[in-house]
Amino acid sequence: MPDTAPATEMGLRDRKRIETRHRIAEAARSLALEQDIDHTTIEQIAARAEVSPRTFFNYFESKEDAVLGHTELDLDAETLAAHLETVAGEPAAQAVVDLAFLVFGSSFGDEHERLARKEVIVRFPQLMRRQVSRMTTVAEAMTGAVRTILERDPAWGPDAATPQAAEMLLGMCMTGLRSSARHEGSDPEEVRARVVASIRDTAARIAVTAS
């Protein structure tokens, strides 16, 4: 298995930020469910989360985003560029799995988070449009990063690094991560190893079937 220490270290550096974002999201969600989203203010959310309103805006653009509880890191160009340098030389499957860990931390296997987000969308259906928009933005940024990973991988190269290939590999990684965390635990190193092995095995079987 390739050395995954750099990606793990990056996760540790972001842990405090992820924990703060979780705390703000929990505060926003509980207040919205208690008193309705229209009667919930950013000041109230910040007070319950024990942060300043200014800190709130370091994590969320609006109270609606906070209620939805988006926990992924912001996918700015600098963050992605730093990650791509970190995973340079790793096989594509490993690099994409590490990208998912960078973006989502351990939240991909958080059943509580998934159910909580579903609850607020059912209660406040007006949030659905924002949820879809956010998911689209994250997916586009991640797909672009995966294409760069594939372009740099000798087994792929620029010609094979199509948007379709990037979306397919990213989809396999995300499905594998969610399934593995849900059914077999969420230890990062174990999840990485299982998912990468599963992707390689699946690709090998597809190759045999297609030949």
Q: Secondary structure elements and their pairing?
A:
Elements: H1 5-13, H2 15-35, H3 42-49, H4 53-59, H5 63-68, H6 77-86, H7 92-104, H8 111-123, H9 128-152, H10 163-184, H11 188-210
Instruction: Write the H/E string, N to C.
Output: HHHHHHHHHHH
**What is the 3D form?**
elongated
Number of strands: 0
Low-confidence sequence ranges: 1-10
Terminal-residue CA separation: 27 Å
Average of pLDDT: 81
User: Per DSSP, what share of the residues sits in E-state strands of 2 or more residues?
Assistant: under 5%
Helix fraction? over 70%
How would you classify the helix and strand content by structural class?
A: mainly alpha
Largest sheet: none
- Over the alpha carbons, how many angstroms does the gyration radius reach? 18 Å
- Total number of helices: 11
Polypeptide structure, described:
This protein is mainly α and 211 residues long. It has helices at residues 5-13, 15-35, 42-49, 53-59, 63-68, 77-86, 92-104, 111-123, 128-152, 163-184, 188-210.
Structure keywords:
11 helices; mainly alpha; 211 residues; elongated; 0% strand; disordered N terminus
Task: Give a short summary of the structure.
This protein has 211 residues and is mostly helical. It contains eleven helices and no strands.
